[in-house]
Please model this.
Amino acid sequence: MITLLVQRMRRDARQLALWIGGTALLAAMGNIAVADTFGTEEARVGLLVAAIGNPVILLFRGLPSGAEQDQVVVFLILPVLMFLAALMSTFLAVRHTRAEEEQGRSELVSATPASRTAPLTATILHGVLADLVVALLVSLAFLASGLGVDGSFLAGFAVGGVGVAFLGVGLVAGQIMRTSRGANALAVWTVTALFLVCGLGNALGTPSDDLQRMESSWLTWLSPFGWAENTRAFDENTWWLLLPLFGLGLLLAGTAVALQSVRDLGEGFVATRGGRSTAGRLLSSPTGLVWRLTRGGVLGWSIGGLLLGILATSLSGVIDEFTQDNEAIRDMIAQMSGGADTASATVAVFFSMLGILAACCAVQIACHARQEEAHGTAEPVLSTPVARVRWLADYVVVAAVGIVLVVAGAVVGGVIGIVAQGDGTDLLVDVLVMGAGQAAAAAVFLAATAVVFVLAPRLTIPLAWTLVMLGLIFGLFGPLFGFPDWVVDLSPIAQAPTVSAGEVDLRGLWGLLTVTVVGIGTALTLMRRREVVATS
Model:
């Protein structure tokens, strides 16, 4: 088992370094950002009053515990850190369980003297160690930024505890589903649903009389995110709430071991849906095949775009009202949006997140090409008259369609929010322009993934998702964290067209389109001479 553990650690060294390093860096920048943007108690009080006064904002933030600087840091940054740790852990769990079975590696290990449970046990130890490293580095990042010792370590280990809890979720998903794609989808939707349950529980909680503290409702206690937030680092410092987090992870890990012992290798507990006896017209072309394989993911990301669009325009008027007397919040939103008025800036900030959603959809589809190649299922397609360039182009086309559908969902959602407001028609131009701009930004991530797929196929999945994460940190949080302009401008999200005072700024659009065309053209040209790389 030790050999398997070392093998997993060596294999994941680069990926985990990026995940853990990025999470720790974000933690370190959180205190700096709060000190710069909310340096006075008055500004911090105003922020909490605005958040608690409009509970919808709490859907995406933490649990207010006071107006001290360290408490506001936890309120703003802890949910993001926990979400990253949860995703890292679920991907790790599925990668070393269900994906290994799909690729036949588990069967090879089973042919050795190693016990059947040894690979799963090694994966559990590997995941727990990774989450403990996250906990320690996040704690040290908070300490290095000037926060207190007790609260720093509690917040760090709350992040690690959430990671362990969702490591268990990923392990169980890998046992239930028959494919790694299905297991990852189940795990990610579970993470997202429980994150929203926690946010909804916070939003429905009971505020204090001075609107600086919120007691969460019972809904919050249904989510591991809620347990972590109720540790209230830098306030009550409730350490014992870490026990349920680590306990849930170990309980689910034990459940995964039990499930593995009662199923056959390669099988799952969710039955594979029977296919039709004859192929439909959609499958008469390779493009149709790609769409058939990826349409579920496109639908999920499009629904996310619809909900984001509704929130963007529904909250714009509310946030505008609550920031009338709070210059710090207005400045923060203006920084993140490029200087627009508050209502337009709110739409800009939300639509920056839309660019990330659309990029995730495109990258997921482009990475699917790598999965098909690694699993050997691309070769039967390429053995027909379908050329390699046409095969890759199909994935690029379907990914572009996915971007359009995600953005279209957000535009429809934005219109719904405008109609619900009754007087927000001025935002329609903002929605259309920013939606189109974020589609162009997402296309850059698609082009970058295609180039990586051709030049370094084995790095496609980790490098593509790393680029998306960097785009999120630089483009959305860069201005808030005080990054230099040239660093922020490295993100396509920051280059997307914006609307300010009724004026449309298209300067960044031409650069985005140029990079996209050159990148996709380069990838398709180089694909002509690239050999199939069928191993991961």
